Amino acid sequence: MSARRIAVVSAGLSNPSSTRMLADRLATATIAELAGSGIEATADIVELRDLAHDITNNLLTGFAPPALESAINSVVSADALIAVTPIFSTSYSGLFKSFIDVLDPDALTGMPVLIGANAGTARHSLAIDYAIRPLFAYLHAAPVSTGVFAASSDWGSTADDVAPLSARVERGARELAAAVAARTPVRDADPFDPATYLGEGKSFGHLLGGLAGE
């Protein structure tokens, strides 16, 4: 069975950040769930903090510097996406939205997405459903039903005992793993392979033959 690749986008601004901590936990849990189903998977981490200047330059010029281009390719060619953002002013961060804005609008069509968010207080937990989920719906992605929110208290001794963060992480990971398992594995296209743009089984001979009227 083909190995799967999960892109993990973390939009935290500090280093270290609770956003990255949540992203890592979601990625680890998803890979473990897939392994339990006999599916090998790896995670590619995209730390937006390191790409902030490149993202701004891309918005201004329309061209992606090499590091940003590599990150974009990692995301759009993945089998699934884990996207985690801090909540600022009741919504996703500007850095997170700016990265989404430099993606091709159709690049995430049909892609399973596990949404994560964090903030200082649980009062912002609904931002996942009223702000972030509609964004991915607009992009025709396929967010799983569970979004995982972590407040500052979830990392301390006063964490919620009724619905602990670990249980929410595991539930989201199960849903994403199931969506990945049900989806045809993404095959990296070779830009020099004629089949990439002529169709499977085609060659330059078919193209030349077509041009010659054969």
Quick tags:
214 residues; alpha/beta; seven-stranded mixed β-sheet; 8 helices
Describe the structure.
This protein is an alpha/beta fold. It is 43% helix and 18% strand. The chain has helices at residues 18-36, 52-61, 66-76, 94-102, 127-138, 165-182, 195-198, 204-211, and strands at residues 4-10, 41-47, 80-88, 91-92, 112-119, 142-143, 148-151. Strands 1, 2, 3, 4, 5, 6 and 7 form a seven-stranded mixed sheet that branches. The longest helix is centred in the first third of the chain and has 19 residues, at 18-36.
In short:
By secondary structure, this protein is an alpha/beta fold. The chain is about 45% helix and about 20% strand. Strands 1, 2, 3, 4, 5, 6 and 7 form a 7-stranded mixed sheet that branches.
Low-confidence stretches: 190-200
**Outline, from the CA principal axes?**
globular
Tally of separate helices: 8
Structural class assignment: alpha/beta
Q: What's the SSE blueprint?
A:
Blueprint: E1 4-10, H1 18-36, E2 41-47, H2 52-61, H3 66-76, E3 80-88, E4 91-92, H4 94-102, E5 112-119, H5 127-138, E6 142-143, E7 148-151, H6 165-182, H7 195-198, H8 204-211
Parallel strand pairs: 1-2, 1-3, 3-5, 5-6, 5-7
Antiparallel strand pairs: 3-4
Helix pairs in contact: 1-6, 2-4
